[in-house]
Structure formats: C-alpha cells, structure tokens
Prior knowledge:
Blueprint: H1 9-16, E1 21-25, H2 31-39, E2 45-48, H3 52-65, E3 74-78, E4 81-83, E5 90-93, H4 95-105, E6 112-115, H5 123-135, E7 139-144, H6 149-156, E8 160-163, E9 170-174, H7 188-202, E10 206-210, H8 214-223, E11 230-234, H9 240-247, E12 254-258, E13 271-276, E14 279-286, E15 289-296, H10 299-307, E16 315-319, H11 341-350, H12 365-377, H13 389-394, H14 401-408, H15 413-427, E17 433-434, H16 439-448, H17 454-462, E18 471-472, H18 474-490, H19 504-514, E19 519-522, E20 530-531, E21 536-539, E22 551-560, E23 569-577, H20 580-585, E24 590-599, E25 602-611, E26 614-622, H21 626-638, H22 645-663, H23 672-682, H24 688-691, H25 706-715, E27 719-722, E28 725-732, E29 737-744, E30 763-768, E31 771-774
Parallel strand pairs: 1-7, 1-8, 2-5, 2-6, 3-5, 6-7, 9-16, 10-12, 10-13, 11-12, 13-16, 21-23, 29-30
Antiparallel strand pairs: 3-4, 14-15, 17-18, 19-20, 19-22, 20-21, 22-23, 24-25, 25-26, 27-28, 28-29, 30-31
Helix pairs in contact: 2-3, 4-5, 5-11, 7-8, 11-12, 14-15, 15-17, 15-18, 21-23
Amino acid sequence: MSLPIESIQSDFLTTISEQDVIVTAATGSGKSTQLPIWAASQGKVLVVEPRRIACTSLAEYVAHLCKTELGGKVGYAIRFETVFDTHTDIVFVTPGVALRWYFEDKLAAYSHIVLDEFHERRWDMDLLLALLKQHAQHRLILTSATLNAHSLSRYLNAPILHSEGNMYPVEEDFIAKDQRAMPTKDRLTERVVTACQQAQEDTDGDILVFLPGKGEIIACASALKSFDAVVVQLYSGCSKQNQQLALSKQMSQRIILATNVAETSLTIPNVTCVIDSGLERRTHLRNGKTVLGLDAIGRDSAKQRLGRAGRTQAGICIRLYGQFAPLIERTPPEIQRESLTELVLAAGCAAQGVDSLPFIDSLPDASKQRALTTLHNIGAIDSKQCATELGKLLYPLPVDAELGFLIANMPSGALKQAIIDLIAVISVPARVYQLPTHLEQIEQLNLLLPNHCDIELAIAIVRDQVDGIVHVESEALMEAKQFSEQLREAFSLPSLEKAASYDRNALITAIAKARPEWVFVKRQNRRGGFGNGKIEVSPSNTSRINENTKAMLVLDTFALAGKGSKQAMTMATLAAPLPIKMLASQEIGELIFLEAYIDQGTIFTTTARQYAGVELSVFSSVAKGEMLIDACTYLIKKGELFEGLYYQLSKNIASHQLYFDYLARPNNLPTACEFIRAKLVELGVESQEDIQLIEAEDFSFQEVDSWELDRFIEKHPLNVTIPELRMQVTYFFKAKRVLLEHLEGKRKDAPKKWELPNFSGFKVQYKKASKVVDIK
C-alpha cells in the first residue's frame, strides 16, 4: 500500500540536492519513516526526534523497511543506550544527544539533518536549529503535521513541500454539559470510564485515551480492569513490553491510555476512537525555575489528537470538555515558558555565546538575563557568554548545570558520591519511590533513618539500603542508577556498588553553603510555610519533613495549582531538616543592626542574624566595619556621642527644608541620621580610635548662608512657646495658611492671636487632637 508522502518524493529529492526544505504532512502520512530513507540516498542522515519512545520505535520500523537489522544501516542513540556503528546510514537521536554530538565535532559525520515534529518547539530543537543555521554545513529537513511553516520558510529561506495524506472523517462528540466547559481534572477517572463505555458501544476498533500524566493513567487503568479489553499504559519511561503492546495490533480490542507521546510520530494501529481529556502536563516559569503544571491543551494539540482516529478508517473523537471551550490557539514554545540556563550554557559551549545565535524567535530577555546571571555566578560562563572549563565539564553531564555545579563543589570524594546518588533521583522524570503507608513499615523506616530526611532516603534507595520498606518503581530506579554510574564515571569516582559512606550533616552543610538560596525557614504566618526571602514552599505529602522542623534544605519542588494564580503553592518534595544554629554558624542570612551601647569606653553593637524575615540569632560584639558606622549614628541620635548634636542638626535641616519650600526650590535634603551616617563614612571612620579624631563641628550642615537662614527662621519659626503651651508650626505657603499643632502644655483653650508671632498674610489655625479651630 502506498503512503501519502510518496506524492512528493521526486520534488523532495530534487530540492534537498540544492537547498533546505520544510515538509508539512498530515499525521500518518509516512513522513517520519520515508524522508530519512530518501535522504540517505544522498548521504548519512541524522534524524532528531523529540521523544525517546518515538526515537527507538521509528528506528526499529525503518530498519524493518530497509530489511536490515537494527544497528546496521539504521540505528538510534538515546540517553544511556546506543545501537549503531560508524557504518550506520540513518541514526535516530533525541535532541540532547544531537546537541552533545554537535559540541564534540559539529555533527561532521552527517550530511543531512532531519528535525522531525518541529512544531513541538522544544528549547533543545530551537537551539539545535539555530546552531545548524549558523554553521551552514548540513542540509536541513524540517517536518511537522501542524507547523506554521511560512515563518520557518522565511527563516531558513527554504521551500515548503506539503502532502495532504489520507485522512478519514472523524466525528467529534463533546460530552460536557456546558458547551464552554474547559478541560478539568475533576472526576477525570469517572468521566474516562463513561467515555470508554460509550466508545465500546460505537466502535470495534481500538480506543486511544489522552491523559495528562502517569498518575492519571494508573488511576484510569485500575478503573478499567473489568472492561473486556486489553488496557495498555503508554508514557515516557514505560516498559518495552507496554510499548510493543501499544505499537502493534492485538487480537483483542485495546484501550490505550497515553500521554502526549502518542500525539505525533508514533504509529498506533487500528485506533478508531480517541478520547481526549483536553489536559496535558506543561512546563512553566515560576520564580525563575521551570515547574510542571496541569494545563488545558491548545487547539493545535486537539487537532493532532483527533487525527489519530482517522488514519485507517472513519473514527470518533470523544472530547471530555465543551465544544466552545476557549482553548489557546497554539502551545507556546518551550523557550517562552522554561528556564534558559541549559540553553545558554549549551550555546556557550557550541557557539560564541547565546547572543551570537540566530534563533527563529527572540529569547525572552528576563529569562535570558536570569540564566546568564546564574551561570556567571557559578563560574560556568565568562563575561563573553562563552563556557569556562567548568562550564565545559558541566554541559555534557546528563543533569542540570546547577546540579552539576553542586557535585563539583563538594569538599570530599565521599560527599561527591552522596550528592551524585541524590541528583540521580532528582534527574529521573518519573517518581522513583513512594513513602510507606503501613504503620509497621513507617516505624521500620523511622528506625533506620530517624532524621526525617528525604535526601538521606533518596541516597539509601539508590544504594539498595531500604529494600522491602519503601515501594520503589523498578524502571525509574534503574534509570536513577544509570544516572549515578554515568556521573560517577564523569568525576572519576568508584562505581555505585562501591559507594562510600558519608556524613549526613556534612553533606547538607556543604549543599547549603554552595546554594544558600535553597535554605528555607519556617514562617510565622497563617499558612505555616517556609520562606527563603523570595518564595514560600510547604512540605508535600511525598516528603518526610515533620511538623517540628524549623528550617529545611529544599532540592526539588512542584507547583500545586490553586483557584487563582495567587493561591498556587510550591510544594517541597525532596528536603532535609536543618538546625537553626547551623544556619547562623554558616553565616546564612544577613546581619541586622538592633542597637548600640558604650561599655568602659568601647562601643558595642547588638546584632541579629536574619534570614527570610526570621531571626536566627542575636548577639553582642565590639562594633567594627559597617556596624561601627551604624552604632555611631545610633549613639549620636541618643545623645551618648556628641551630646546635643542630633537635636541641632535636625533643627538645622528642618530650617533648610522650610526655606527651600518657601522658595519652591526642588531639593533632596537628607534626614539627620542619613547625614550623620554619610559624614562618618566621608570622615573615614573605620575603627573605634577614629572616633577620637572627630568633633561635633565636623558635622556642620550649611547649604544657605547662616545670616540669611537665621533671618528667615526668625520670621518663620518652627516651634512656638507661650505660657503653658508648646506648639509645632507647619507652613502651607501656597495656601497662605499656618497650622499650630499642640505638642505639650496644660493649657486647655486655643492661643490668642496677640500671643503669637506676626504671621502676616497667613490664615492661622490651631490643632489639638483631632479638633482644628481658626485663630482670629
């Protein structure tokens, strides 16, 4: 049977012999399998697939089409697994692998690069395209089913080839009662079961259900056990057996529960009904960090999902949301909704910095600057945005640069091994373990690891030290161990089976010292969260942190959506309790001046160390440095240094302020304390001996000649005193009004006009408490 894509074969081969090309084709047209085979007639081909499952399954299928064993003419390379050799003509890889190879030799072994399913707009695909465009040594082939190809055509100066495909009609059925109802997780399992019952009545073919994540897939699979069908779970990281069940037709009807991995690239045969939850897990930027949230899909994804039901015959698409739900038109590219730290570091390794690359869309400036600052702070890039030796060490590692930085900064080999095993757990996308729920297992775990420390538990799990106590996902744990072994090899450390023991307190202290912003202290507020001065987090139900914890070190979080954006919460999933005294001893936080005093001629300060608004400790010490300046300012204000100076200075500055107000002259006069502090710095006060060398006259403030200012104040006094009454005077020059406010005195009635200075031309009022009266 011929494939729809074959209609453009001749044009495709003619075009790629001379220039780059963009191919748009409907889902199931054969573009992901046929284009690499055709391109291989003109040279070696590297096919970049956004997802690992698509990468391996397509390689297997293309090898079958080419009548060769996998690893011969056709192969693949994904994280931890390579199946190809130097003679392989077509190699399928993930974007991360392609970028690392580009860094090594700019993909010199390949003449043609296929960027498949480019519409997914992953940051690594965007970066790879920018690098390849700048390098201009490869023939580029970009493909997609839903791509807005015209802007890309202008970007590459490349023609568009389109294949219509054979799409059978698909009937849409929106089963939400409210026609504008948005996709929601509420009663999701129940609604999926109802939709599957309807689907089995309407079709004999297989049913493909799109769900946002593994958790929802497991819940739905459990609820569908009684159905007369083979229930298959398909998600990133699922077993090879499940992949084979999903990708090959079975004798019995199948209900395939899948994430977005089934939207594109993968061929799932015999699907005649799609059930669309309308939900997906999508990354977002929150406080500068990439977090995963639950979101409604865009219309582009909705179209892709529907297309899965009409590939071989007419089908049905059951939507669990309203027909007129206000979905976004297109899913935003990752570069607009994720941290750019990895992208900027990769650009620093593979090019002359991120600003040297011609991206198809401009990078968000705030995210780019945040990434540059982060990488510069850890010493991974230089002032020209190029990777340093440390940056070049960190980039090839299969973990985030900030986590790689932690490994490099551990003070001993034993702590390096411990942090590697911890990072291995963090780096696995799937959950590696679940805390026990049975009382007996909880008691066993608390007896074995009494510190209620997630960090300690994660390391113990990777090292197989809690077997039988904690439920472990075997495939996720295997991936974590692969991470550990690869990182250990990169840092020339012993293998996992020879892991060295470590000091837990030394580990968390070293992490806190390297990344103090990961320290959170208990806030005294209604929510009872933990803060670091920028964000607030709460321990999740997957954390062992207990209610008595006053401070914790947080290495991993997730966002928990609320009813509104302000109600969203960040939950800590991997944390370690910290003693408050350790934070103070490590000088985490800032010193806050409280007060000063003089004891036997020496100036002392009372200082608090605060972090995120929480007082960690209070102590007294001999005043020096910045604290000496604060102490002197404080003592001068109290009159314990240069008695009377503060009062005279305050009065003088107030007189100047009144004079400038009278003239309507713009000014920016300091307060008395600001002036004293600045003067102490100007006079070079650095030690207590320096105080003996200065006098009160050194603090003279005179911006207006004294004779002129004195004459003005004589006519415009700041205070007025008459028998049994002292008043403060406030002038409103534009309104020609003077307000006399009661300061002290036993007099009950308002002053008489003849008792007051001559406020000629001003309306005079008197205020006591809240009562204001005119003086006539």
